[in-house]
């Protein structure tokens, strides 16, 4: 185990998608990615919440999933990027977060955001036009609940008691104003893998957001920026494209239908729009060294979404990220995993 301080923490994010209509297989594979990331030394593992299914599924109940992941992992931190906060009762959410944090030995990070899907808001009886206001209101309650303050009624406090969440709450932002707002509230900043609605490269769009966040930060602790990026290493570019190309192209065309991307994109432009880093590890390292936001990020959060690569290819990509990509960029493994827990709950 090295004692050298890493330049950033290394994370992995999954949207819990599969290629067939088999949620048992999809959830099992996602859990195996967490186990593999834990063994490879990844610092953080994240799941995204989606109430409306994506192509191949999506995870509606992230804290239930993460509770199970606590039993299969030993050191990796577990979080959401993001929990759709306006659709949650913040007191009940705080209870779930506190429970998973207790089960995991204090390994929880919680990222929150407003979401965007009108159908999800309608299903939960919430007004999508009030998503920013609801996010702010619910985040205030969530913060106080996790800090052990009275919430909901005089004398009521969330249990189990959750301490030390002041530096473990993350907020997604999609503008300079949103990033500054996150800083003003003391949240860590989460930046998405792609800047939707912009023609410029994602990192060129997002670097001013990161800079605005850092300028607005006025807390005594170090500000933290989590940078989500689509990273898929393989033997070579052709092998990588065989695993991710069709999925990325289809996803870009779906995004174009909603106006986030221009219509009629070819594969190369789809990959550019998703700010994709793919191919041989050396190619990815060279490209990430040019990434404009990474120099100010404290956390690099890698993901394969919108691609759904074969499970073996996904496991191999995680290995390459941890052994051949991230170390070349300054990441160092900081701890060895403990004994691996026996599988429970999810059938093989």
TrEMBL record:
Pfam families per UniProt: Bac_luciferase (PF00296)
Keyword Oxidoreductase: yes
Highest rank taxon of the organism: Bacteria
GO MF terms held by the record: monooxygenase activity; oxidoreductase activity, acting on paired donors, with incorporation or reduction of molecular oxygen
Entry-linked InterPro entries: Bact_Lucif_Oxidored, Luciferase-like_dom, Luciferase-like_sf
The entry's keywords: Monooxygenase, Oxidoreductase
Domain Luciferase-like as annotated: residue spans: 12-254
GO CC, alphabetical: cytosol
Stated name of the protein: Flavin-dependent oxidoreductase, luciferase family (Includes alkanesulfonate monooxygenase SsuD and methylene tetrahydromethanopterin reductase)
């Amino acid at each position: 185990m090295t004692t050298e301080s890493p330049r950033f923490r290394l994370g992995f994010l999954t949207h819990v998608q599969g290629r067939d209509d088999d949620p048992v297989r999809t959830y099992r594979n996602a859990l195996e990615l967490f186990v593999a990331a834990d063994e490879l030394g990844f610092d953080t593992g994240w799941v995204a919440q989606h109430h409306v299914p994506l192509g191949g599924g999506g995870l509606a109940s992230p804290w239930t999933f993460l509770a199970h992941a606590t039993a299969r992992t030993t050191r990796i931190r577990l979080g959401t990027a993001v929990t759709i906060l306006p659709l949650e009762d913040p007191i009940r959410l705080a209870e779930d977060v506190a429970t998973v944090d207790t089960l995991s030995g204090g390994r929880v990070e919680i990222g929150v955001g407003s979401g965007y899907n009108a159908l999800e808001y309608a299903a939960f009886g919430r007004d999508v036009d009030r998503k920013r206001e609801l996010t702010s209101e619910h985040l205030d309650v969530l913060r106080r609940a996790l800090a052990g303050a009275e919430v909901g009624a005089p004398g009521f406090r969330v249990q189990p008691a959750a301490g030390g969440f002041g530096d473990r709450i993350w907020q997604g932002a999609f503008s300079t104003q949103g990033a500054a707002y996150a800083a003003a509230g003391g949240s860590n900043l989460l930046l998405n893998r792609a800047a939707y609605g912009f023609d410029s490269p994602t990192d060129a769009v997002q670097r001013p957001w990161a800079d605005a966040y850092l300028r607005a930060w006025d807390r005594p602790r170090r500000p933290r920026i989590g940078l989500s990026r689509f990273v898929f290493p393989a033997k070579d570019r052709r092998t990588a494209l065989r695993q991710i190309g069709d999925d990325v192209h289809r996803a870009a065309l779906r995004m174009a239908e909603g106006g986030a991307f221009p219509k009629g994109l070819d594969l190369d432009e789809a990959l550019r729009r998703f700010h994709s880093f793919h191919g041989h590890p050396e190619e990815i390292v060279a490209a990430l060294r040019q990434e404009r936001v990474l120099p100010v990020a404290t956390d690099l959060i890698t993901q394969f979404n919108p691609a759904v690569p074969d499970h073996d290819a996904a496991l191999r990509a995680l290995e390459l990220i941890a052994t051949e990509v991230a170390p070349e960029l300054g990441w160092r493994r900081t701890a060895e995993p403990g004994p691996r827990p026996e599988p429970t709950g999810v059938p093989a």
